[in-house]
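@channel sequence for tomorrow's demo:
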Amino acid sequence: MSLIDTNVKVSTKFLTESAGPGEKEIWKLTYVNYLKMTGKSPEDAKTERPKLTTLLPILQSLDQKWKSVKSE
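structure tokens (generated this afternoon):
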């Protein structure tokens, strides 16, 4: 049985491209997890724009390619 390589080098080119349907699902899951972590309802967070540095750990846990993105 072959092992899965979890140490893949991924470029950050995906940040400049349009998101596909699978990526939009990841974004939705990220936002739901963010709401759970902060204890906010969607109505409370409607006018707020979360920072990437806040969402990055959640994105990295859901999608391998986000691990190559560094928070600043």
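heads up for whoever presents: The mean pLDDT is 80.
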